[in-house]
Amino acid sequence: MASERVTEDMVDELLRTHGFYEDEDAVFVEKQQSAVEAIRSALAKAGKGGKGGRGYPEFIITTPETPDMVVVIECKASVKFHESPSLDRPVEYAVDGALHYARYLSPSYTTICIAVSGTKKSNRWTVMLVPKGESEPRDLRSPMGAAINTLVPLSDLIAAASFDSAVQNQRIKDLIQFSMEMHEFMRDEAEMSEQEKPLAVAGSLIALGNDVFRQTYDKYPADELPAFWMQTIKKEITKAKLPVAKVDNMTQPFTNIEVQPDLRKPTKGYPRGLLNEIVKLLAGESARMTNGWPRLIWKPTIHLLRIWT
Q1: How does DSSP assign 96-143, residue by residue?
Q2: DSSP label at 147?
Q3: What angle do CA 244, 247, 248 make, to 5 degrees?
Q4: Mean pLDDT computed over 263-268
């Protein structure tokens, strides 16, 4: 009788072939557990036996570049147990199990669920998408419209999920919600004026376009981050190869944020300061909205500043 471990080993080998293990800091492949608190919480009562216990699929895959997405892979030893007619037998069938977990995750994540059964000699694959906020699956399709029916590199899975209209609409809703929360934070916590808010956002997005800043800003104490923030903005704007006078005009407005006293003081709630929190919020949101590449926002920000000044 075939062992489910054989199927898991087959999947593990394919994950390696497709580069899932090449950079452990870029892609997290976890087996039957997760270090991500939100995922652990979502699956805390996802036991497939229906008794409310904790449940986990064979593989859980996440990446910091798209923190609103998760890939789950459910394995079964025999192709006879790939999919039930009613999709309601998660203990016995791979597709049913993958969808079972996706429904627990989808309130917080867009979930790519992969069901695989069998061995190298004979196997079946089903790749589905459950957009965040929904419970019903759909075929995961490439941007060209072809259904994905086997394991492909993570970048291809994410590109296909990101192209889905429901995922795009949800991301727009999330962005609007984030914008409201960001506005309230800058108004209530930082007590910033209406003129200062867009400068803080634009400057932070420009700074996040710099690899060194993006990787190290969180190491700076509250009273030192504004100077590093301003230094990085000047460096990035200078890269645009503009006349010196133009660079001065573009960078001067940000000095008002650099010297804003409330942004450079550590507080009990924000020991690294409010500017750090603003940058951190924008770093997380730009990663989520742009597959981890803030330069997609940074470039149009530079362009707008070029026009405004």
Answers
A1: HHHHHHHHHHTTTSEEEEEEEEE-SSSEEEEEEEE-TT--S-EE-B-T
A2: B
A3: 90
A4: 88
Top-confidence residue, 108 or 299: 108
Sheet holding 69-76, edge to edge: 28-30, 59-62, 69-76, 110-118, 123-130, 138-139
What average pLDDT score do residues 170-193 get?
Answer: 82
How big is the CA angle at 176 (ends 261 and 307), to the nearest 5 degrees? 65
pTM of the complete model = 0.66
Q: From residue 36, how far is each of 10, 43, 127, 303 by CA, in Å?
A: 25, 11, 23, 37
Distance, CA of 31 to CA of 22 (rounded, Å): 17
Q: For residue 259, which of 226, 234, 308, 285 has the smallest C-alpha distance?
A: 226
- Tell me: the pLDDT tens digits for 16-59? 999 999 999 899 999 988 988 899 999 998 887 666 678 889 99
Paired tokens of 63: 């990446």
Per-residue pLDDT for 186 more than 90?
Answer: no
CB 110 within 8 A of CB 140: no
Distances (CA, A) of 306 to 51, 198, 241, 243: 60, 15, 11, 11
Contacts of residue 113, defined as CB under 8 A and 6 or more positions apart, other chains included, come to 71, 72, 73, 74, 98, 99, 101, 102, 127, 128, 129, 130, 137
Write down the mean pLDDT value for the chain. 86
Higher-confidence residue of 164 and 124: namely 124
104 forms beta bridges with none
**CA-angle at 166, arms to 165 and 172, nearest 5°:** 90
Phi, psi torsion values for 164, nearest 5 degrees: -65, 135
> From CA 14, how far away is CA 89, in angstroms rounded?
26
